[in-house]
Amino acid sequence: MFSAFSLRRLAMLWILLAMLAGGAAVWIWSASQAAWNAHLDRAYIAGLALHDSLENGSALPAGLTLTQLRDEPDLPSGWSETRITLTSGRPDRARDPRLTMRIQSPDIRYPVSQIETLGGSSQAAGLASVTRTLARFCSEPKLFIQRAQSPWIRVDGSAVWGCGAAPADLRLLALGIVIAALILLLGWVAEVSGAFTKFAAALRDHRARNAELPVGGVDELKQTAAAVNAYVAQDRAALANRALVLSGVSHDLGTPATRLRLRTALIEDQDLRGKLEGDIDEMTRMIDGVLTYTRAEIGQESFRELSLRSLAEAVVADYQDVGMPVHLESAPAPRAEARTLFSQTTTAGAGEPQAFLMRGQPTSLRRALTNLIDNALKYGREARVTVDGNADELFISVADRGSVLNEADLTRLTEMFRRGPNSGSADGVGLGLAIVSTIAAQHGGRLEFQRSSSGMAARLILCRRWA
Question: Which UniProt keywords apply (predicted)?
Answer without folding.
Answer: ATP-binding, Cell membrane, Kinase, Membrane, Nucleotide-binding, Phosphoprotein, Transferase, Transmembrane, Transmembrane helix
